[in-house]
Amino acid sequence: MQVPSSTVAGGGPSGKDIAGHEFLAFTLGSEEYGIDILKVQEIRGYEAVTRIANAPEFIKGVINLRGIIIPVVDMRIKFNLGTPVYDQFTVVIILNISGRVMGMVVDSVSDVTTLTPEQVKPAPEMGTAFGSDYLIGLGTIDERMLILVDIDKLMSSSDMGLIESLAS
Description:
The protein is mainly β. It contains 4 helices and 11 strands, in the order H-E-E-E-E-E-H-E-E-E-E-E-E-H-H.
């Protein structure tokens, strides 16, 4: 399924374009985020990674996933959200972004949620860990709020370009 290309001022898909899409909810610190479930290949428990010399701190290293070497990014380190704690809830979300497979370490995952157009609000222009360029909007479910992240844009941004060279 292809996401329509119309966008809002922030550059991401508009609320009506993403409505009805399913989002995987995950936490980083005290905030809850959501990414398009279609980008998720699998979810794995956190395991030790092989560090790469001279890689930025947010790139934890690489793992071998069934014969494929996958770079792993720790999102808490990437967005300065405090010292990461690796416990039984820590997971690696394996993503498939434009044919590239990569891992994203998050504190925990909770569920998959389908959002209607009324539940998706534009992201306010303010300082969040994820720059507004990477935000689709805010998904509201009762008293819960998901910060919806454009994971394609985030993982293909220039500072993440290093991942490409590590995985090659």
